[in-house]
Amino acid sequence: MNNFEFKNPTKIIFGKDTIAKLENEIPQDAKVLLLYGGGSIKKNGIYEQVKSAIKNLKVVEFGGIPANPEYAVLMDALKIIKDEEITYLLAVGGGSVIDGTKILSAAALFEGDIPWDILSKGIKTEKGMPFGTVLTLPATGSEMNSGAVITRAETKEKRTMGGPGLFPEFSILDPQVISSIPQRQLANGLTDAFTHVLEQYMTYPNGALLQDRFAESVLQTIIEVAPKVLKDPTDYKAAADFMWSCTMALNGLLQKGVPTDWAVHAMGHELTALFGIDHARTLAVIAPSHYKYNFEAKKEKLAQYGERVWNITEGSTDDKAYAAIERTVAFFHELGIDTKLSDYTKDYEGTAETISKRFTERGWLGLGEHQTLSPDKVEKIVKMAY
């Protein structure tokens, strides 16, 4: 196991009817900017619960944060933060709203002139404006980590950011909220969380036995609860396991002491930026091709995954590893997730070259756990995913 340091300061408030506990978590003298997305929270009762819990606070609202949090929209919210002298941010939504809140947290105290520099120059945020979250869509794990991904439509870019100052102070996780989430978004959430685990697990064996089993347990839980969640989102037990699995998939614990990959995300982000494809679905497009292209480097871990997670016990290491890839693709299909780029767009020709060129321009010359995945290899992987 590799050396590591681990600190996650986010307080989790988990369970039924916990939104009411909001009033105990935000300072009474705070001036709050309430941030949310397209307005679904006003249809499913979450908005009323939140407003009731913070009725004694000074609150300004900003809605309309899109599914891929758009930089230009968020800059409108930043102006409100400055003009209204906001001191606390409250994100009520899924990963997009929470990620959008993180760039606002960073930008509110940023000493530079152009907040986009935080993303384009990779500036880590050591101290941001304090914020909390009420999770309405399990998927990204953003409610318990310090990372974010922001889209800029004018340049068709999707860039990452983070830093120790961007952990939520608290996150409220009430599994009952998933009862009103559309099937497509539930499938996305399951796929997103599943792939988050794979990015931290599907590398090579390094003797971190407990870390491997942490990862495998999250994967097994997602597989077990997925059909239940899709069949009946009001099944509280399944909803609770689903929500907590999504959080555990990316709260920092699984990646400690082990090598991690994240090349699938790097490529997937570009597909979202170029075509607007749902983030989770881009991961399902790239992951199988990525594992097949890097088969020799990953086959030991793929075989272990096949044995432990999918109960694939017959054949050689190569046989088990390949079967594990095929079973993963089948799982995505069972969720209703297509796994080829051509399933989403007819304009895929030239995509691989565009992504390879972007990575070269950014200096991303060696992705993956071995830092050997050069832009020309990325081009081949993306072409395999057509």
From TrEMBL:
<feature type="domain" description="Alcohol dehydrogenase iron-type/glycerol dehydrogenase GldA">
    <location>
        <begin position="9"/>
        <end position="175"/>
    </location>
</feature>
<keyword id="KW-0560">Oxidoreductase</keyword>
<dbReference type="Pfam" id="PF00465">
    <property type="entry name" value="Fe-ADH"/>
</dbReference>
<dbReference type="GO" id="GO:1990002">
    <property type="term" value="F:methylglyoxal reductase (NADPH) (acetol producing) activity"/>
</dbReference>
<dbReference type="InterPro" id="IPR018211">
    <property type="entry name" value="ADH_Fe_CS"/>
</dbReference>
<feature type="domain" description="Fe-containing alcohol dehydrogenase-like C-terminal">
    <location>
        <begin position="189"/>
        <end position="386"/>
    </location>
</feature>
<dbReference type="InterPro" id="IPR044731">
    <property type="entry name" value="BDH-like"/>
</dbReference>
<dbReference type="Pfam" id="PF25137">
    <property type="entry name" value="ADH_Fe_C"/>
</dbReference>
<dbReference type="GO" id="GO:0008106">
    <property type="term" value="F:alcohol dehydrogenase (NADP+) activity"/>
</dbReference>
<dbReference type="InterPro" id="IPR056798">
    <property type="entry name" value="ADH_Fe_C"/>
</dbReference>
<comment type="similarity">
    <text>Belongs to the iron-containing alcohol dehydrogenase family.</text>
</comment>
<dbReference type="InterPro" id="IPR001670">
    <property type="entry name" value="ADH_Fe/GldA"/>
</dbReference>
<dbReference type="GO" id="GO:0046872">
    <property type="term" value="F:metal ion binding"/>
</dbReference>
<dbReference type="GO" id="GO:0005829">
    <property type="term" value="C:cytosol"/>
</dbReference>
<dbReference type="GO" id="GO:1990362">
    <property type="term" value="F:butanol dehydrogenase (NAD+) activity"/>
</dbReference>
<protein>
    <submittedName>
        <fullName>Iron-containing alcohol dehydrogenase</fullName>
    </submittedName>
</protein>
